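Record type: monomer structure entry
Structure origin: computed from sequence
Chain ID: A
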Amino acid sequence: MKSGSAGYRSPGSGSVDYPDSDGQPMADNTEHFHFIHTFQGNLDALLPDFVAGDHLWYPVQGRPDIRVAPDVYVAMGRPKGHRGSYKQWEEEGVPLQVVFEWWSPRNDFAHQVEKLRFYDRYGVDELYTFDQLRRVFNAFHRVDGQLDPVATEGGVQSPLLGIRLALEDEELKGWRPDGRPFLRMTEMEANARLAEEKLRLSEARAEALAARLRALGVDPSE
């Protein structure tokens, strides 16, 4: 979790602090770190909504002890922008709808159950988890008011986001609604550089053609 410690003091409710850090590391290992950056980056580029990674969520005003820091989450309908933490009462009461969790080896079964119950109680509609040690992918969708497990064999599509998730070679991978795979941040940057280079070459060719036309006495703007 990031190192900031500033908190929100709720007006009229006494001196209530909502720390922006839980004192925990952002990731337990490099594979966990890669997961957070890949999923947060791809979802943030894809969606118009607020997407965050390793970020504290406070669902109840006046209860700073009720909090959790999902690895990646989507708050649909909430604007993008910087926040120290996600305080639900400051977000028109909108809870997190989609959460992604990476269970590193230190996250035992009791910890996993505790988080599942938290997300179930406070309104998450879709939860996707990956157990790093066992290489197991699980998914939960809200049905009749509670999070229920759904089959993951062959992949799962998110009803809210339209993305598809599946295990391939024991790795959790994602695909956009148009079928394009989630890319690593380095791949996204390389694609952006390639697009810029193609645009530059196209503009250079257009200018060279215009220069030849002008040399022939032809106005390329006509």
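Annotation 1: The chain is about 25% helix and 20% strand.
Annotation 2: The two ends are 59 Å apart (CA to CA).
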